[in-house]
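User: My notes are a mess, but here's the protein and calcium ion's SMILES. Can you give me a structure?
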Amino acid sequence: MALPIVLWCLAFMAGLVVLTAGIVNSWIENESRAERKFIARQMALSGLAFGLNPEIKPGNPLLQKGSKETEGFDVRIANEASRINPNFWIQQGGRPLFLKLFASWGADLKQSETATDSLQDWIDPDDLLSLNGAERGEYERAGRPGYPANRPIKHIREMEAVLNLAPLLAAKEGWQELFTVWYSGKISIQHASEQTLSTLAELTPIQIETLFEVRNGLDGIQGTEDDEQFESIEAVAAFLGAGGRQLAGLLQFFDTSGDIRRIESTGFCGGIQHRIIVVAPSGAPGQIMSWEEK
Ligand SMILES: [Ca+2]
Ligand SMILES: [Ca+2]
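Assistant: No problem, the inputs look usable. Here's the predicted complex:
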């Protein structure tokens, strides 16, 4: 009887050693992970300081430092004025914008109308049901009493809570990149993306390429000193040879003004990354509209 117990004890002790070593290893691993996470965030903060400096434009070498494998940061400067503000457009009666946008995502007319009307009902303060929308009763029947919000959207992720709009967003990867709640106005032609120009103004790929080439100036980078500053939408349309539906789309959805900097600073350390996204009005140093970390 004695021998098997000894053997069992030995086996048990051996197992214990392996187990303990495993725990210690993972403890060390966690410790250095926390440390790397901390450094990655510090890196993101350093990058952000450059990104917030109005003197530093996209393409500036100061916006990149180190590498992903060791440590460093990568800062991307974009503009919120390239985006669609659902609050602004719903309040401006911008139904056609959403119908065009959702159609370009592959939604049929009925889906586009129910999503647009439901967004309208979410934002408008009243309880009057739009033709294809959703107010209190529809949310109650869907098991979500207390909705819609009946006020402007505070964060674009709130759009996922809008009945009938949620399935369209779920099927559209990267939809968040199209919207903003920080910039209010028509889309800036100085910053507009390929997607909004092709969907809303129906510009051809060649027209968009031409526009970008002129807009970016000699350095080929958008958002720098040498960018062409357009005087009017009419001038842009004439230059692109855009008439008819294209001209109508440009005039309806685009504008020459609008400038709100969006800084995405990603810090790295030993395979860990930390991103800080800040929205700040251009030409107003020190002011910050939104701060998010992930
Ligand atoms: Ca409402
Ligand atoms: Ca440029």
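The chain has ten helices and seven strands.
User: Great, I'll file this with my notes.
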